[in-house]
Amino acid sequence: MKKxxxxxxxxxxxICWIEQSISSILSQTYKNIEFIIILDNxxxxxxxxxxxxxxxxxxxxxxxxxxxxxxxxxxxxRGIEYATGEYIAxxxxxxxxxxxxxxxxxxxxxxxxxxxxATNIIDMDMGGILTGKGTSYPSKxxxxxxxLKYGSCLPHPTWLGKKNVFLKNPYSPLRxxxxxxLVARLAQKxxxxxxxxxxxxxxxLNNNSISSKKKVFQKTVSFYVRDCYKSKKDISxxxxxxxxxxxxxxxxxxxxxxxxxxxxxxxESYRKNRYVDFLxxxxxxxxxxxxxxxxxxxxxxTKIL
Length: 305
What we know:
Blueprint: E1 4-10, H1 15-26, E2 33-39, H2 45-57, E3 61-65, H3 72-82, E4 87-90, E5 96-97, H4 101-111, E6 116-124, E7 130-134, H5 141-147, E8 160-162, H6 163-168, H7 178-188, E9 193-204, H8 212-231, H9 237-244, H10 247-271, H11 275-288, H12 290-304
Parallel strand pairs: 1-2, 1-4, 2-3, 6-9
Antiparallel strand pairs: 4-8, 5-9, 6-7, 6-8
């Protein structure tokens, strides 16, 4: 039985969520695991005490504390470099894995000779109540690589892959879209990807909305990765950083800022039951905004795929 190193970065998630997440990994039917937890908020002593206390109860837990906040990508890279397992599995601090997730992923990856596998997910609210909604992504390598032209279809918290794949292809230090950027790079390089067609992780929907600025940045990075992937251009951190600082990148962010402002106005019209105003604004947004047309196109195509 090959060792699986589960890597999880924590920042400021509620301790009760973190404890549930950790428990779901420690209770896996697949027993040959180590659990590497990276604390990326070194000033939060309560979080540190929590994970250290759990580590004392189970020697499979390894706690790493960053000296400063370095972001998700850099934290995961540190955990992966420290890992001793042949496989790397991802886990997020606010989600819950089904007890047979790791066992089924290892079996699926080996049977299908994959480099990286993900699974579908089922949504739960912030209180842990399942919503009944989830994903049904394509499972085969060819269809996955077609889907990646429009967005990611491999839920990041469910990943399990060969350690050498992660070592040769580290996460980007950018604090947005690390999963889409990495999986698009892997697809470009010919790695074999798969999605186990079963929901093996409960994904927590966080209602704490991200800032408008961060949303624009995330979408800008996503559009860049998508366009590079579709046109078969090299996806790299240096190229991405250059794009973000270019006139084209700045213009893209400005257009997205206008788009999200219009979307918020649309939501407000709908909330106040001003349906005629909502319809007129929606049509104008679609006609005037390339970003709006791109988003709608993404939604329609990925639904078909």
